[in-house]
Every structure is written in C-alpha cells, then in structure tokens.
Amino acid sequence: MIGRLARSPWTRLVAGLAAMIALYAPILAELVRAWASAPSLSHGFVVPLISAYLVWGRRHDLAPMPIAPSLIGLPFLLSGLFLYVIGTLGGEPFVASWSFIVSLAGLILFLAGGAVMRTLLPAVGYLALMIPAPYVTLKGLTDWLRVIEATTAAWTLPPLGVPVFQDGFLLHLPNMTLEVAEVCSSVPAIISLLALGAALGYVTRRPPTVHIALILAAVPLGFLSNIARITLTAMGVHYVGPIVLQNALHTWHGAAVFVMTMGALSLLDTGLMRLRLDPR
Amino acid sequence: MTRLDRHLLVALGLIGLAALTPAPPDWTQPASGPLLDSIPTTLGSWTAETSSVEAVLPVDSRSRESIGRVYDSGQRHLWLSVARYTSTHGPATRPALQALVRERGTSSLVRARATLSVDGAEPISVMRVSLRYSDRVVTVWYWYQVGRRIVGDEYSLRFWLTLNTLLRRDHSLLLVRVATVDNDFPANFLEFLVPRLDKLAAVAERE
Fold first, then answer.
1. Residue A258 at interface with chain B, using a CB cutoff of 8 Å
2. 8 A C-beta contact, residue A164 and residue A181
C-alpha cells in the first residue's frame, strides 16, 4: 500500500504542493492575521475551504486523468516565484500574496500538465478572493459607496412615510441622526458575495451563462440588500424608536446583508434555470 | 528517473532557492537630531504660533519625528504637519493611511487629485481630501517626499518604497499635509514651503 502510494504520480504532486505551502507559510499566516483583524476580510477564512471543496467536487474527473508534466508551467512557476522574491525582499505583502496564486498554478501545470490544471483552475483562481485589496483601494471604494448608499436610502425613505434630510453619510431623521458608517458599507458584503456567487455557480454546476450571471449579480444585489437594510433600520428608528439599533438586523449588519443577498441570488438562480429549461 | 521526477526536482530546487530570500533589512538608524524644527515659523506673510494641529491632522505614531503648526496670514489660517519616517522597509514602518486625516465627525469625505502650481517651480501632483464637518469644510492637501522626489499618489508611493527596499536604498520619507478651511488654496504659503522641504530632504539624504 505504502509502496503503491510512493509510486503514485499524485504523491509527487502533493509533495510539490507541500513544499510550496511551506515556502508561503509566513505569507499565508499574515493573510490569516489580516482576515482575523478586519470584519470586512473575514470571508477569507471560507475561501480556502470552498476552494478545497471545489477540488473535492472534481475528484472523479481528476482520478483517471493522466499526469503529464508540461514545460509550459515553468514560466508561470518562475514568474510566481520571482514575484514572491520581489514582494518579500521589497516588503510588499500584496505582491507576495498574489504570487502564491501564480506559483501554485505554475506548479500544477509544470508537474501535472494542462488537463489537470484546467480541471483545478476554478479552485486555484478562487483562492484569489482570499487576498485583501490594498487598504487605499478599499477605503476609496467604501467612502464613495457610503455616500451613494445614503443618497439612495434618502430617496427611498420619504415615499415610505419617513421624512429625512441627507448630509453626506448622515441621515437626519426627525428623532435621530443615523450615520452610514464605514462598517455599514456594502463593500465587505459585496466582496464576500462575489466569492459566494462564484462558488454557487460552480458547485451547482450551472451552465457558463448562468454562472457568469450569478457572479455579476452579486455586486448589485449586495448593494441593493444593504440599501434595504439601511432603509429598514431608518424606518424602524422612525416608527419604533432608537431601540431598533440594538436589533439583530443592525447589530449583525454583515450577516443580514449576506443572508438577504443569498436569498436574492438563489431566486435569481432558480429564475435563470427555469428560463433555460423553458425558453418560451 | 521519470519526467515527472525531473520536473519535481526542478520545482523543489526553485522553491528552495526562493526560500533563501531574506526578509527586508531592519537597518538601525544612525543617531541624528531633529530636522523638522528647521522649518521656519515665518514663511512669506504666514507666521506660526505654538499650537496643536491634532484636531485636524492626527499624528502618525509610526513617524520618527513630526511637527505641527498653525500658520496665520491676516484673516487666513492653515494647519501644517510634516512627518519624517526612516527605515520604511516594511508595511509596519510605512505611513499609516488611517492617520492621514481626522475622519471622526465628518458627514462626507471626498478624495481627489490636485496639482499645485507654485511660482517659479514645476507644478506638483498631490492628493486632496475634503472633509465636511458639522461646522466647516476642511481641505487637506498632502503629498510624500521620498528622498528628493515628490510623490502625490498612494500607489506610486508603494512602488517607490518597494523599489527602495529592493535596492537597499535608505531614502528618508516626508509626509507633508497642509489643511485649510473652505478650500482656501494657500499658494503664497506653498511657494515658500516647497523649496524649504526640498532643502530639508537634501539634508536628510546626506545623513
């Protein structure tokens, strides 16, 4: 049994992957620290698990595949390791983190060949979602979206009987002023939903058009869910009182947006599949 | 030896080589006195009195030294903060973006690029942040000076700092922030400040 395992080409691939993970251990540890330190990055914990699940889901396709090492992988492996050296020597963790994806893809292609790489590509590509965007990018996007969300909520509230005066991030209600704070922005939810939309379409083995639609829809649906959450919170404050700020919808704002968008994505998925099955 | 074995050996060799990459240097700084105090308290028609600027421009604890002054010229006034960083070879020693402006109490925050045209000098690209508080709008213009080079963009700053670390160059880094009320662009202050900072950077480079 052990002899058979040692002779298996898959064992060699696993040995290569283990060496790669050992090389990147300090960078992966930094990523884990970043996920743990910011709620907006916490989806990073789930990404490797979903990626592993994507590999597991393809195990029956992978098992009979021939391991055919390809030299085409070498330039990718070299590029990835070069970026690793630049990122590590230059003290630039973003470059070093991205190099992991390139190195990993290069290693699989170099050791196992094109057919295995094509099968594993979604799982490897999916790992990119665990790498946080630079703070300056996220911050700019968040500040921009906070104003848009506050403005959209300010349009939505008067027809629902809630008088409101908007001043930038602030929504002045008759009995209270609400701030669309940085943590209330839909940016964190959108990033994690993008990850979820990608996984959902792949795991359920949807056709490419439906899969792409699910990924693309995650962004507007996440945004709209957050508007709905802000609007509901403002309505609650107006009609019930500030006590609603202590309810689950506000306290667990990230989870609330996530659940709402998941529901919307599932509805969209069902609708699109019905359209495909019944193209009248 | 199979083809797979050969590829595995090459891969392990390359990974082993990459593992030899050293971490960025943690250079010990030579002892040197404060430099920023040499920025004059009178620049053109602007004069400074001792007062705190932290209500508008927070101090970055990562900086090695910093000064903050409030300059007045007639009815106009502005806040100036200059921070100096050394050994910027890793994220933990580089300027903290969270400490650039005082965000608490703002109702909106708009970021943009701006070009500062100062008499007798090349225009410089800088970053501008407009913050709306309940009682006023404060505009902060800020830029970095890496060695003698003025860098007015966060991404470019990351590029230059990474390059300097790669090349083992230990340039000094200045973060310059000027804040005014109601977008009152202080051209006649900057035309005196910018050349002074350039001279200061030259002194820091020689250290």
1. no
2. no
Residue B119 pLDDT > 70: no
In this structure, what token pair is assigned to residue A164? 């409101």
B22 touches chain A (CB under 8 A): yes
Q: Which residues of B touch A19 (CB under 8 A)?
A: 11-12, 15-16
Beta pairing class for B173-181 and B149-151? unpaired
pLDDT of residue A79: 96
CB contact under 8 A, A95 and B162: yes
- Kindly report the pTM of this predicted structure: 0.80
Burial class (CB in 10 A: 0-12, 13-18, 19+), A269: buried
Question: Given CB atoms, is B14 within the 8 Å cutoff of chain A?
Answer: yes
Query: Can you tell me whether residue B85 is helix, strand or coil?
Result: strand
Which segments of chain B does DSSP mark as H helices, in order? Answer: 3-19, 154-166, 187-206
Residues from chain B contacting residue A20 (CB–CB below 8 Å): 15
Closest by Cα among B154, B177, B20 to A140:
B154
> pLDDT over 90 for what percent of chain B?
22
Q: Measure the CA–CA gap between B129 and B138, rounded to whole angstroms.
A: 8
CA A237 to chain CA centroid, Å, is 32
3-class SS of residue A34: helix
Please count the residues of chain A: 280
Q: Which residues in chain A come in under a pLDDT of 70?
A: 1-6, 39-40, 188-189, 247-258, 277-280
Q: Which residue from B19, B24, B97 is facing A136, i.e. has the nearest CB? A: B97
Nearest-Cα distance to chain B for A260, in Å, is 27
Name the residue with tokens 């709620």.
A39
